[in-house]
């Protein structure tokens, strides 16, 4: 028998529809989406991480930003992908990565407009920055939220 949406139970259809939601419209809907994707009650940590990251970028606190990255990290440096192995390499090119336009993207991002999928949470309309939980063991009961990719600003 071929499966179609009509043959799926209503609960399954609802969950499929929820997984296709791109952008949320309220902090509560972002919270629900993050909890659904990243684990029950994880939204508080993701929200705190986002606020701390946004503050650090807005204040040009390169040292704080450096502690929030998962190394090795791929980042756009002067328009080209570069793999940064550690915080020293990151700090050496911080101003080439966090250009005024990328800092503006981060500054303007509202938590209620974040996009989330199974890969992580996206800052910017064009996927300029991604963050996600990095597991400390196979069961992933302990994790640290980190920036996992900086694509830069395409504008």
Short summary:
The chain is built from seven helices and six strands, in the order ααααββαααββββ.
Q: How much helical structure, as a percent, in the residues?
A: 40-55%
Taken together, the total number of domains comes to 1
> In DSSP terms, counting alpha (H) and pi (I) runs of 4 or more, how many helices?
7
Structure classification:
alpha+beta
* Mass-distribution shape: globular
Our estimate of the beta-strand percent is 15-25%
Biggest β-sheet description: 4 strands, antiparallel
Strand order of the largest sheet: 3-4-5-6
Count of extended strands: 6
Query: From the alpha-carbon coordinates, what is the Rg to the nearest angstrom?
Result: 17 Å
Order of helices and strands: HHHHEEHHHEEEE
N/C terminus separation: 49 Å
* Nearest-integer average pLDDT: 85
pLDDT < 50 stretches: 1-22
Question: Overview of this structure, please?
Answer:
The chain is of the alpha+beta class. It has helices at residues 10-19, 27-38, 43-58, 62-67, 87-92, 94-97, 100-108; strands at 73-77, 80-84, 115-117, 120-123, 129-135, 143-150. The chain has one domain. The chain has seven helices and six strands, in the order ααααββαααββββ. The strands form two sheets. It has a four-stranded antiparallel sheet, with helices on one face. The longest helix has 16 residues, at 43-58. The radius of gyration is 17 Å and the shape is globular.
């Amino acid at each position: 028998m071929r499966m179609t949406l009509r043959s799926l139970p209503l609960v399954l259809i609802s969950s499929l529809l929820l997984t296709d939601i791109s952008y949320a419209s309220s902090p509560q809907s972002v919270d629900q989406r993050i909890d659904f994707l990243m684990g029950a009650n994880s939204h508080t940590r993701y929200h705190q991480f986002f606020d701390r990251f946004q503050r650090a970028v807005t204040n040009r606190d390169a040292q704080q930003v450096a502690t929030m990255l998962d190394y090795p990290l791929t980042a756009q440096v002067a328009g080209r992908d570069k793999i940064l192995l550690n915080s020293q390499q990151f700090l050496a090119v911080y101003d080439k990565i966090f250009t005024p336009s990328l800092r503006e993207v981060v500054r303007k991002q509202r938590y209620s407009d974040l996009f989330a999928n199974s890969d992580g949470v996206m800052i910017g309309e064009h996927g300029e920055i991604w963050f996600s939980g990095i597991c400390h063991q196979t069961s992933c009961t302990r994790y640290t939220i980190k920036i996992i990719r900086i694509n830069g600003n395409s504008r």
